[in-house]
Structures are given as structure tokens and as C-alpha cells.
């Protein structure tokens, strides 16, 4: 009998990875490719969608080739993606009208402030569970329709993008929809990604006409919204295409919901934190959408075929792993692996705090004009102190969210499941345990975002029979328990709040 696998395309902020998993959740193929980060102006962040699609094909082909796995042995493909990043493309040619606007992009901050001035924040939150913020896709789509260079089309005399969008000639979507379109020819997204657009009503489970009118986004350009694990399938890859096989594309989740799924957080109260470019703390709240009074987002966690959606509370932290990349950019470290050694070489930051608000602050502060700040430096400050302060900022921002999460949910967290590239750093995991005062559980398979997408696709085609089967796959690599006295952790965390105050509302025009 031929052994088969499930493939996962993990399209992230800095690169694209393909992983194939076997029935036990073990990685059998793995390939990765970075893509260019484009910064046209301060606070603007773009990606080339064509480069992303080309890299996706390359990593799938290379991953399978190096593992000697034929495409026909993939029972399904799942997709996980950077969520709010927005692409608008021509339906006929498949060519994007502009670079993708990345979730980190702040160019629409002025538009968000218009919404705030018009007292529309609560109205938006009531429909979408989201803060009014440039983070989400609504203002990005609006900006693209207003500002993207029009594609010349022989079939039309005018180049007005909105007119073409209303005619169904332009399509929009988050990166999952862009990849599904290129893989299958179908314009589809899943409920988790739809819930991040600020255009989707998470209670009615439909695109919201009032929000579409507010942002002047034609309904004709929106993708069909489907379950995260879809037995009806999103489509098949083209047997004449790059894979040379008709592989079912059957699952998709935004990256943080995929990590929630991969960490088998299937029950209310289960929580995980993913440490990537940013960090995203999600708690499953079951079939109830819990409103937040503490700056968190109410979002859709996942949906299985024929079942109601599961909701989640989310704390979105914009910059964590990217703070480590910044240390490299300014030559304080040579590589990320150095951070633990340098941080351990000093007993503390010696009073230095780094607030990595490079693209504003997310939960629970939601200040798009906050900017990165280092405070508390003296003549005796060394790079070791700054490196340690960068790591501590990751732990402190997580505590900001954890405290908000407990206040909103009424659930005391006693253990947190963690994943993402940064959790390979055991110093950071121990630090996180100390700052939170709870146990940290690191799983054996740390690529849980890709694993979650694979699980969703595999469930849809019967590769796995139930979520209970997936729970049996989850294994702990290591647990970390608090070692720092709680009074010390509380005192240092209190000073963190003082540092955050100094970063707020900084980016103002002179």
C-alpha cells in the first residue's frame, strides 16, 4: 500500500514554507524561501504577490523532490497565511494591480482616525469583533482602489478601478485567496481570513453590506467564504500545472488560527501564543463570540464542515520576532541564536526597556502612532542589556495580552501552549514563564501553523478521522515553570508599563 501525506503551504510575512506531514503529524518534507520586504515610505510595507506565488510553486516542488515524494501521494493541500495582507488582482489576467499591502502597513492610519472621529469604532467592533485599525484589510482595499495604478484593458475604455471591480473584473482577497485562486482557479477564502478583513460580520457569517458601503468595496470583488476544513473542497490543482497532479485543496486558516488548530486547542479555554514576526495570543471561547472590554479582538477560531464556527479572543502583538531581526539590522547581533547567550551574560537589563513599537502598538493599546523606544540607558549600558531588553519586551507584551484575556474571559490561564520560531530559544520560554507566572508548554512539532492547515485539509478528505485523533498526536517537548520570584516579575512588569507610556502617540507630522 502506498503511503500518502498531507501538504501544507505556510505563506508567512517573511517567507513561504511547504511541509508535508504523515499520519502521526511528523514532518516528512520541508522547504522554505524568503521574499522581499518592500518599504516605499516610512510605515508602508508591501510584498510582491507574483513573487509569493512563484516562491510557493518553488517550495512545493523542491520539498517534494528532496523528499522523493510524488505529488500524487498528497491526499490534500492546506493553506495558512499572513492574514490581513491584501491583494487586488485582475480576474482575467491574474495580474495584481499593485503590490500587496502587508498587515504591518500603516498608510491608512489617517482613514482610521476619520472613523474614530465619526464615532464608528464601536459600530465596526459590534459587527466584526475588530478594532478600527489600519492593520485590517478594509482600509487597505479602499486605498488600493483609490490609488493603485490601473491596469490597461482592451475591453474597457475607462481605467477606474472601482468600476472594474463592480463589473467583476477585479478580485480581492487575503493571501490564502490569492494562492487558492492560482492553485485552483476558484475565488475562495475561509471564515477565519474573512473575519480579519473588517468587512465580514462574524455573527451573521456574511460580508456586511454596511461595511462594504463605508469603505466603498464592491461586493462583486469578494471571495466566497467557506469552512476552514471543507469536505466540499475549494478545488483541485491543475493536473497540467506545476504539480502535474489534481491534488484536492481542502483547508485554509489564517496563520494564528492555524496555530490554534495545530496546538489542538479545540475546547473553550484552550490558549496558545505564537511567536513569529509578531506574536498572537488566542483563546478558544467555543461557539460564543465573547466581546472584549480590554482591547482584545473577537475573531473566528475555525469552522469544520457542517459544524458551527468556534470563536476566539485574540491579542495581536505587532512586533516580537521582528525586534530580533531589528537587532540584526543594526548589527547588535549576527544571528538570532546569539540572543540567548548575550541575554544570559547579564543578570538583568540594568533598568533598560525596549518598546518595539516599530509599526505602532496592537493589543491592548491600539496606538498606530506609537513608535519604537529605548528608555533607561546609562553610560554603562551595553549591547547585552539591549538584547536582553528586546527579549523581555516579547514576554512583557505577552503579559499585557494575558491579563486582558483573563479579564475578558473570566478564565485564569494556568498553562500556555507556545509555538513559532522564537520558542526554540529556551531562555525566552523560561523568561516568558517567569513574567507570566505560569507553566509554558512547548510541543515537539513547533511548526504548528503549518500543521494546523494540514490537519484542516486532512480532516476534510478523511486522512484523519476526528479531532480526537489529532489530540493524540500532540506531544510536549518541554515544559517551563516559573523560577523568578513573583514580586520581582511584578516590579519589572510595572516599569514596562511606564516605558510603553513614553512610546505612545509619537508619530505626528511636524
From TrEMBL:
InterPro entries: ATPase_NBD, Carb_kinase_FGGY, Carb_kinase_FGGY_CS, FGGY_C, FGGY_N, Glycerol_kin. Residues 272-460 form the Carbohydrate kinase FGGY C-terminal domain. Its EC number is 2.7.1.30. Sn-glycerol 3-phosphate binds at residues 13, 83-84, 135, 255. The keyword Acyltransferase does not apply. GO terms for biological process: glycerol catabolic process; glycerol-3-phosphate metabolic process. Residues 5-262 form the Carbohydrate kinase FGGY N-terminal domain. This is Glycerol kinase. It comes from Halobellus limi.
Amino acid at each position: 500500500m502506498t503511503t500518502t501525506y498531507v501538504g501544507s503551504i505556510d505563506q508567512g510575512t517573511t517567507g513561504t514554507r511547504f511541509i508535508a506531514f504523515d499520519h502521526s503529524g511528523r514532518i516528512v518534507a520541508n522547504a522554505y524561501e524568503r521574499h522581499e520586504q518592500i518599504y516605499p515610505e516610512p510605515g508602508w510595507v508591501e510584498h510582491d504577490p507574483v513573487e509569493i506565488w512563484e516562491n510557493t510553486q518553488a517550495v512545493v516542488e523542491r520539498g517534494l523532490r528532496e523528499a522523493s515524494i510524488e505529488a500524487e501521494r498528497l491526499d490534500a493541500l492546506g493553506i495558512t497565511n499572513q492574514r490581513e495582507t491584501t491583494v487586488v488582482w485582475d480576474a482575467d489576467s491574474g495580474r495584481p494591480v499593485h503590490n500587496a499591502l502587508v498587515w504591518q502597513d500603516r498608510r491608512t492610519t489617517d482613514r482610521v482616525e476619520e472613523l474614530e472621529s465619526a464615532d464608528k469604532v464601536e459600530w465596526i467592533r459590534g459587527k466584526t469583533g475588530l478594532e478600527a485599525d489600519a492593520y485590517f484589510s478594509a482600509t487597505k482595499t479602499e486605498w488600493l482602489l483609490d490609488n493603485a495604478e490601473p491596469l490597461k484593458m482592451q475591453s474597457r475604455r475607462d481605467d477606474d478601478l472601482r468600476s472594474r471591480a463592480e463589473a467583476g473584473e477585479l478580485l480581492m482577497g487575503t493571501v490564502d485567496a490569492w494562492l487558492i485562486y492560482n492553485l485552483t482557479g476558484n475565488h475562495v477564502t475561509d471564515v477565519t481570513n474573512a473575519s480579519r478583513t473588517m468587512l465580514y460580520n462574524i455573527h451573521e457569517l456574511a460580508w456586511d453590506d454596511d461595511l462594504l458601503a463605508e469603505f466603498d468595496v464592491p461586493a462583486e470583488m469578494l471571495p466566497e467564504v467557506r469552512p476552514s476544513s471543507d469536505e466540499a473542497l475549494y478545488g483541485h490543482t491543475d493536473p497540467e500545472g506545476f504539480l502535474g497532479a489534481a491534488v484536492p485543496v481542502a483547508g485554509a486558516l489564517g496563520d494564528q488560527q492555524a496555530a490554534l488548530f495545530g496546538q489542538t486547542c479545540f475546547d473553550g479555554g484552550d490558549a496558545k501564543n505564537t511567536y513569529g514576526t509578531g506574536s498572537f495570543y488566542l483563546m478558544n471561547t467555543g461557539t460564543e463570540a465573547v466581546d472584549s472590554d480590554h482591547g482584545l479582538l473577537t475573531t473566528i477560531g475555525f469552522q469544520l464542515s457542517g459544524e458551527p464556527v468556534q470563536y476566539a479572543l485574540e491579542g495581536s502583538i505587532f512586533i516580537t520576532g521582528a525586534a530580533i531581526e531589528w537587532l540584526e539590522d543594526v548589527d547588535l547581533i549576527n544571528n538570532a541564536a546569539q540572543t540567548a547567550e548575550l541575554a544570559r551574560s547579564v543578570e538583568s537589563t540594568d533598568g533598560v526597556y525596549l518598546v518595539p513599537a516599530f509599526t505602532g502598538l496592537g493589543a491592548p493599546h491600539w496606538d498606530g502612532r506609537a513608535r519604537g523606544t529605548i528608555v533607561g540607558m546609562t553610560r554603562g549600558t551595553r549591547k547585552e542589556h539591549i538584547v536582553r531588553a528586546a527579549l523581555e519586551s516579547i514576554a512583557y507584551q505577552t503579559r499585557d495580552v494575558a491579563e486582558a484575556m483573563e479579564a475578558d474571559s473570566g478564565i485564569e490561564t494556568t498553562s500556555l501552549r507556545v509555538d513559532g520560531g522564537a520558542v526554540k530559544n529556551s531562555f525566552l520560554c523560561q523568561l516568558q514563564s517567569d513574567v507570566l507566572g505560569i507553566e509554558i508548554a512547548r510541543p515537539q512539532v513547533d511548526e504548528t501553523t503549518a500543521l494546523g492547515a494540514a490537519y484542516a485539509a486532512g480532516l476534510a478528505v478523511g486522512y484523519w478521522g476526528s479531532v480526537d485523533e489529532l489530540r493524540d498526536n500532540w506531544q510536549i517537548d518541554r515544559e517551563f515553570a516559573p523560577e523568578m520570584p513573583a514580586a520581582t516579575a511584578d516590579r519589572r512588569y510595572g516599569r514596562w508599563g511606564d516605558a510603553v507610556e513614553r512610546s505612545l502617540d509619537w508619530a505626528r507630522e511636524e
